[in-house]
Amino acid sequence: MIYEAIIDKYYPEVEDGVQQPSALRRLLLKHSRQVADHCLRIADRHPELQLDKTFIEAAAMLHDIGIRWCYAPSILCNGTEPYIRHGLIGAELLRSIGCDEAFARVCERHTGTGLTRQQIERQQLPLPLQDFVPVTLAEQVVCYADKFYSKSHPDRILTAKQAEQSLAKFGQEGVALFRSWDERFG
Question: What pTM did the predictor assign?
Fold first, then answer.
């Protein structure tokens, strides 16, 4: 699979000469696998969506590839960038190694239910002033599935109501979008 080589390169199994995956690699793989499996369940439940299972699995496995460069010690990320930039960082990484643009767009559009230029400007987020909103069905499915799994609590699966509550602190527009996805994909 395309994602395995990329994850292995940036989250190696050998750390300091010892064959032992880092805690961050284990967390990334667990979270990404949870999201990927959720996406595959949606594809199986909704054949009418005609989702490309190979693509959504790989996209879900890569959606958080940029976390290692961010500072979020509670989830083992000891980089220097603000965590809100992890999707953009992942997208830039995937573009730099020649990945299909569709994978990069999933990375940069999965934060919350996506971020609009107006939200970035209003909240003064350290992101380019442009829309980072899921457009394609695959982008929406990965973004939706991601809301059920927290890297802070990797053994907990959120209910749709809990995911809504988590999104509510950023405004009702994200909650409304999540609800529409839940009606469609849930």
Answer: 0.94
